[in-house]
């Protein structure tokens, strides 16, 4: 039996698409069971639906939204939740209900640059490298155990957008690999 992953997105969903593409491999230990979002206009929902994956949009309000995510994930036999560009802070209650079963991809080399605007901050600091991290989700924003990382160079004259593009390519390789390792831990 493959592990069933519920993915949470808020927008474009390119990391979700990378997880879906990797799951096509018969040897992949997980399958994407449902893709949910806090945004009805999240572009990634159309990609998931086009790949035959059930999609769901949560109602407004954190409590109602999270209760609906919990219900749809349980109804679909989800055992692992993957945040992929989900831009809301999950409540302590939701994290506790899924303790140790939620992972997230973050566009920095954690513990450096938790939160937002990670690429601009790395460039402003004069760092030689940027990167991305997959971590376990806890109550502390971007504070959970790091499961895997990928480093990319910061080049002279780099803009945050140019660095973000280079890091995103690394994210799409890192996330499926680390998720597969995580579900079979
Ligand atoms: N309990 C947790 N929830 C979430 C985590 C986490 O580690 N623990 N990771 C984030 C993802 N994320 C970075 O990877 C992130 C998402 C959103 C924000 C943020 O600052 N958001 C806005 C709006 C917040 C809201 O509406 O809830 C803000 O606070 O202004 C920072 C980092 C996903 N959730
Ligand atoms: N703090 C969370 C965060 O910034 N996540 C980042 O948002 C982007 C989502 O892209 P996608 O929707 O194409 O996967 C990704 O770069 C991801 O690391």
Automatic annotation (TrEMBL):
It catalyses: N(1)-(5-phospho-beta-D-ribosyl)glycinamide + (6R)-10-formyltetrahydrofolate = N(2)-formyl-N(1)-(5-phospho-beta-D-ribosyl)glycinamide + (6S)-5,6,7,8-tetrahydrofolate + H(+). (6R)-10-formyltetrahydrofolate binds at residues 65, 87-90, 104. Residues 4-179 form the Formyl transferase N-terminal domain. The record marks 142 as: Raises pKa of active site His. The keyword Iron-sulfur does not apply. The active site is at residue 106. SUPFAM superfamilies: Formyltransferase. PROSITE patterns: GART. Its EC number is 2.1.2.2. Pathway: Purine metabolism; IMP biosynthesis via de novo pathway; N(2)-formyl-N(1)-(5-phospho-D-ribosyl)glycinamide from N(1)-(5-phospho-D-ribosyl)glycinamide (10-formyl THF route): step 1/1. N(1)-(5-phospho-beta-D-ribosyl)glycinamide binds at residues 13-15. The keyword Transmembrane does not apply. Keywords: Purine biosynthesis, Transferase. One of its GO terms (molecular function) is phosphoribosylglycinamide formyltransferase activity. Pfam families: Formyl_trans_N. Belongs to the GART family. PANTHER family: PHOSPHORIBOSYLGLYCINAMIDE FORMYLTRANSFERASE. Catalyzes the transfer of a formyl group from 10-formyltetrahydrofolate to 5-phospho-ribosyl-glycinamide (GAR), producing 5-phospho-ribosyl-N-formylglycinamide (FGAR) and tetrahydrofolate. This is Phosphoribosylglycinamide formyltransferase. It comes from Sphingomonas donggukensis.
């Amino acid at each position: 039996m493959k592990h069933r992953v519920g993915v949470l997105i808020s927008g474009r969903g390119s990391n979700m698409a990378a997880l879906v593409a990797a799951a096509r491999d018969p040897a992949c230990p997980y399958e994407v069971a449902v893709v949910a979002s806090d945004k009805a206009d999240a572009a990634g929902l159309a990609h998931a639906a086009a790949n035959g994956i059930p999609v769901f949009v949560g109602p407004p309000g954190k409590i109602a939204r999270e209760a609906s995510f919990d219900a749809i994930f349980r109804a679909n036999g989800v055992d692992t939740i993957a945040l992929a560009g989900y831009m809301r802070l999950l409540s302590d209650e939701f994290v506790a209900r899924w303790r140790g079963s939620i992972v997230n991809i973050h566009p920095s080399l954690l513990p450096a640059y938790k939160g937002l605007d990670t690429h601009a901050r790395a460039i402003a600091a004069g760092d030689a490298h940027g990167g991305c991290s997959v971590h376990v989700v806890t109550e502390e924003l971007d504070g959970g155990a790091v499961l895997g990382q990928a480093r990319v160079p910061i080049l002279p004259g780099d803009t945050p957008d140019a660095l973000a593009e280079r890091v995103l390519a690394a994210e799409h390789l890192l996330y499926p690999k680390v998720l597969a390792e995580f579900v079979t831990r």
